[in-house]
What does this fold into?
Amino acid sequence: MPKYVEIAQDIEQRIKAQDLLQGTKLANITALASQYSVSKNTILKTLQLLEERGSIYQVQGSGIFVRRKKRRGYISLIQNRGFTDDLKAADETSKVITLETISATEEIATNLQCTIGDPVYFVERVHAIRGQVFCFEQSYYNQEIVTFLNRAIAEDSIFDYLEKGLNLQIGFSDKYLKVARVKKEIAEFLELSAKDPVLFIEELYYTASGRPFDFSKNYYHPDYSQFFIQS
It folds into this structure.
């Protein structure tokens, strides 16, 4: 993991641990470079990443300030780490329905930029907050990049495992949103009826080098899902 990413994660953890309020002033660039024993250029990259994540904002001539991202229970549509981090304080849980190796279909191969027939992990999960299911997820992971997954990992944060266990550098994501009519086999997991409307989000996650490793389809319950976008 690049040093600037490690520093960004540490700063975010300190903001959460100390429950710093919106507008709290943080140390300046020189002080941060000294604190983490890195160059100012590394700190500039750290601050750029933190701004992209919505954790801080900078005011020229005034300093670096905490940006409290959202209301509790809302999912960010611009972050690149799934939604486990957004919902930790809301008692989010994940239940694995399916975890198996399958052969990439044409659709999967096109999105993951692999060859039809290549092995991929297929994961189905339901996500709930305090027992109320709000999302049904189907994800496909390129096994050339995600070399190992099991149910214990999938019931926690897969992205934490990818970063800390596999040292995968997660770069960016693409998200495609639409309102769709849910199929019966998926509706049952969301406690809906067939053809009820859901928010459908198709997502592609890429490594820092630009290789797609996760192709996901997420179906969100219309009554129990909340989202936010930072601009």
